[in-house]
Amino acid sequence: MTDERGSGSASSLPTGTRMWPSKRYTEIHQRSLQDPEGFWAEEARKLDWYKTWDRVLDWEPPYARWFVGGMLNASYQCVDRHVQTWRRSKVAIYWEGETGDTRVLSYSTLFREVNRCASVLIQLGVKKGDRVALYLSMVPELPIFMLACARIGAVHTVIFSGFSSQSIADRVNDIGAKVIITSDGAYRRGKILGLKEIVDEAAKLSPVIEKIVVVKRTGEKIPMQKGRDFYLSDLLETADPLVEAEPMESNHPLYILYTSGTTGKPKGVVHGTGGYLVYNHSAYKWVFDIKEESVYWCTADVGWVTGHSSIVYAPLSHGAAIVMYDGAPDFPTVDRSSG
């Protein structure tokens, strides 16, 4: 694993350099226009690559392929490289549920859980290139399974936990997802939503679904079909503690995210690995002026692309501490989120 870093340029200023934001922006912008491939190559070197690219860009309008021939892994960027440093003890996720329950995951804990869930996927027969659907509320298992999929090269699709069984079936059938991860339920405005029951209805419309993994969240009694349905806690009992991150070609699909469907049939948008990670890592730094001691809270749901980028892949690739909240942010009163 190499760790190739860019050095003092307009896009990577020396430590201690002070500059008015407008001037710094102008220099970065000019650099990106004068030598776009050189600019993005510098930004890409701030990630860890198994193999550097042969070409920065193949551009045949309207199609683009970034960092062609480069090999990296999104899960490695977000967990492995941090547990090799002092950040192993740093908080990765501060989580709170609507009922007041809390969890705190350090980077070493996140690393452990991502590896174990990657092992669970392998136990279920998931391989590189397979599709996995995630139908969960905002619990830590959601980013954990996203990173577990990325670790082994499976392509995940996150389905917003407010969507119906038909919406799940439409997306699952479209990509051929053979495994879906859900929970026994979710809390929303003081009520329990039966996510597993909704998935069961979707499975009747989705012959492609072979396995359903259930996270215990509410403790509700739910129907479990033998041979198809498994509690995550049971599968973790035999999970391997370490699954090596699989090197992925830069343009290997990382995830497929569907449009909402409000203006027509939902369309699956494929996001590659290298170009997506490089841009999000850089944009997060520029937009949020990330600091080591800061804590970041993106209030979007991971079911939207903002959640993918600003809750999971961008902040965790920086080794940031993030907040996740599961429930309605204005329940039981509107000042809930003011803490």
Description:
With 339 residues, this protein is α/β, with parallel strands linked by helices. The chain folds into 2 domains: 1-72, no CATH class; 75-338, Rossmann fold, CATH 3.40.50.12780. The chain contains 10 helices and 17 strands. It has helices spanning 21-34, 36-44, 74-83, 107-123, 141-152, 165-175, 195-204, 232-236, 274-288, 305-318; strands at 55-60, 63-68, 71-72, 91-97, 102-106, 131-134, 155-158, 179-183, 186-188, 191-193, 211-215, 229-231, 248-249, 253-258, 268-272, 295-296, 321-326. The strands form 6 sheets. Strands 7-6-8-11-12 form a 5-stranded parallel β-sheet, sandwiched between helices. The protein has a 4-stranded mixed β-sheet with strand order 5-4-17-16. Strands 1-2 form a two-stranded antiparallel ribbon. A hairpin with a 2-residue loop joins strand 9 (186-188) and strand 10. Helix 1 crosses helix 2, helix 3 (74-83) runs parallel beside helix 10 and helix 6 (165-175) crosses helix 7. The longest helix is centred in the middle third of the chain and has 17 residues, at 107-123. The protein is globular and about 60 Å long. Mean pLDDT is 93; it is low at 1-13.
